[in-house]
Amino acid sequence: MEAHAEVYAALKRALRAGASVRGTTSPNPPVGAVILDADGRVVGTGATQPPGGPHAEIVALREAGARATGGTAVVTLEPCNHTGRTGPCAQALIRAGVVGVYFLHRDPGAAEGGGAQTLRAAGVNVGQLELTPDTFGPDAELPIDGVAHWLRAVERQRPHVTVKFAQTLDGYTAAPDGTSQWITGPQARAAVHEDRAHRDAIIVGTGTALADNPSLTARFPDGSLREHQPRRVVIGTRSIDGAPQSGNLNRLGFVQYPDIDMALRELHAAGCRDVLVEGGAGLIQSFFQRGFVDAVQAYLAPLVLGGGRGVMAGPLGPSLGDAARFTPQRVCRFGPDILWELKRREEG
């Protein structure tokens, strides 16, 4: 089924709706949905609600009401086909009288998948869309695709892992004396806190916890807390419980795991699907060495130090062949700083 311009405009709107609820839906995916009426006008927009609440399609259909009849649904994940805590979205779309459904990602679940087949059997035209750097035009910013992170977690049976760091132009995250506040400016730091509010957990090593006394909270520029707060996670064997130099974490509460494998296993079991690793250099190196880094957020500041501390504690190997390779996804500017977002390049 051929997609027209209004379908791709609706897909961008659906992606933004899904991105707005990232961090609140796990272990369910942050899906976005848009309903177009028979004339191609947006009449309903929805996003997945917290577990137990309605799925994105249901929210959008409720907003559209009778205007959905004869219309088209555009969804970031194939409409589900099973009854769990909520009913099957494929059947809801059929009852609403939509005549077309476009979706971005196929649902991999044995019970949840198959919605497209159910829709086709009911006479609904179904098409699958593709998201590439040129989907919305060569100069358009690619919206965040939270469902892709969730799918990675389903595939790997562990949370999707993003490593975040801020560095100078010449690759240093701290000066020779260890100072690192602040490499980036206030606009970039505000973006970091907004992103934290869309993660299931923030992870640091014991060295960072003891040296920097981080809060690992998602805050507004005035210091007030955002509505959604990620889990605060520390990895390592050194105790930080009660240590005065980790007072913020002791005050706010945290969970500690001795190693990366246990952390990812336990976090996945607890429903976490999208986590952010913020340091330090030894922990980041370990994540790379284990092959657990799915994405990178690199904040680049217009500074040159000429020496200092790097992103990792050491090399991944002696040659370029040992490098971890990534594909650029988005480039954003925050004041004088640049954010480069990349995803892991799959072998082959």
Automatic annotation (TrEMBL):
<dbReference type="InterPro" id="IPR002734">
    <property type="entry name" value="RibDG_C"/>
</dbReference>
<protein>
    <recommendedName>
        <fullName>Riboflavin biosynthesis protein RibD</fullName>
        <ecNumber>3.5.4.26</ecNumber>
        <ecNumber>1.1.1.193</ecNumber>
    </recommendedName>
</protein>
<keyword id="KW-0686">Riboflavin biosynthesis</keyword>
<dbReference type="Pfam" id="PF00383">
    <property type="entry name" value="dCMP_cyt_deam_1"/>
</dbReference>
<keyword id="KW-0378">Hydrolase</keyword>
<dbReference type="Pfam" id="PF01872">
    <property type="entry name" value="RibD_C"/>
</dbReference>
<comment type="similarity">
    <text>In the C-terminal section; belongs to the HTP reductase family.</text>
</comment>
<keyword id="KW-0479">Metal-binding</keyword>
<keyword id="KW-0862">Zinc</keyword>
<keyword id="KW-0511">Multifunctional enzyme</keyword>
<comment type="function">
    <text>Converts 2,5-diamino-6-(ribosylamino)-4(3h)-pyrimidinone 5'-phosphate into 5-amino-6-(ribosylamino)-2,4(1h,3h)-pyrimidinedione 5'-phosphate.</text>
</comment>
<dbReference type="InterPro" id="IPR050765">
    <property type="entry name" value="Riboflavin_Biosynth_HTPR"/>
</dbReference>
<dbReference type="InterPro" id="IPR016192">
    <property type="entry name" value="APOBEC/CMP_deaminase_Zn-bd"/>
</dbReference>
<dbReference type="InterPro" id="IPR024072">
    <property type="entry name" value="DHFR-like_dom_sf"/>
</dbReference>
<comment type="similarity">
    <text>In the N-terminal section; belongs to the cytidine and deoxycytidylate deaminase family.</text>
</comment>
<comment type="pathway">
    <text>Cofactor biosynthesis; riboflavin biosynthesis; 5-amino-6-(D-ribitylamino)uracil from GTP: step 3/4.</text>
</comment>
<keyword id="KW-0560">Oxidoreductase</keyword>
<keyword id="KW-0521">NADP</keyword>
<comment type="pathway">
    <text>Cofactor biosynthesis; riboflavin biosynthesis; 5-amino-6-(D-ribitylamino)uracil from GTP: step 2/4.</text>
</comment>
<dbReference type="InterPro" id="IPR004794">
    <property type="entry name" value="Eubact_RibD"/>
</dbReference>
<feature type="domain" description="CMP/dCMP-type deaminase">
    <location>
        <begin position="5"/>
        <end position="126"/>
    </location>
</feature>
<dbReference type="InterPro" id="IPR002125">
    <property type="entry name" value="CMP_dCMP_dom"/>
</dbReference>
<dbReference type="InterPro" id="IPR016193">
    <property type="entry name" value="Cytidine_deaminase-like"/>
</dbReference>
